[in-house]
Amino acid sequence: MKRRLRVYKKTVSIVNETAIGMYESLVGNKKGFLLESYDKNYDRLKLYMQKLADIAHENEQKIDTGNIELDAILNNKINEAQDSNIKTETDITIPAGIIKDGYDIAVILGNILDNAIRASLECDEKERSININIKYNRGVMSILVMNAYDNNINVTKNVLPVTTKDDSFEHGIGLANVRNTVEKYHGELIIKTENKKFIADIILYI
Predict the structure, then answer these.
(1) DSSP-assigned states of every residue in 124-162
(2) Could you read off the pLDDT of 99-131 as tens digits, one per residue?
(3) How far apart are CA 201 and CA 204, in angstroms?
(4) pTM of the full predicted structure?
């Protein structure tokens, strides 16, 4: 029960963090925003994020696909990575309005990108990198995230990785939560390492 509660709080935290990050980057106010305010009211959170997106159109925004939650989580995490001197590259081509459940996409990308950022920070600065590739074709969305890592993660193809770091429990919970969400869409999550890159390859049927 305690583990399930921790997973739930982590999921809510990711969605909340996305909104906070957008809010801080756009209007610079860090006060008065509580996780509990949006804990069980996704409609309210979506409306709030829509307002942030409207503001973002008046400011520089790296990602603008027309899918509000996707754009919010990507812009927030890319900014976070670049603030830590992590090189980021993106290739994203999806239709506007294709994301129907922004909460699920926040769970998937929030956890995957959190893991990518943490792993990259363990590398020498010149080696830090994250590549994000998202495509959509005839009801199928593919998400490919590749990041540098420092060889402290043991990965067997299609099995959740084991890390020797202190945050291994949170890392495992995050990827397990991603897998559970992917399965809701009858999709697939493949994880592997290749050429000193940690790779998360996701297929969703939406």
Answers:
(1) -GGG-EEEEEEEEETTEEEEEEEEE--S-EE--TTS--E
(2) 988 889 999 999 999 999 999 999 999 999 999
(3) 10
(4) 0.70
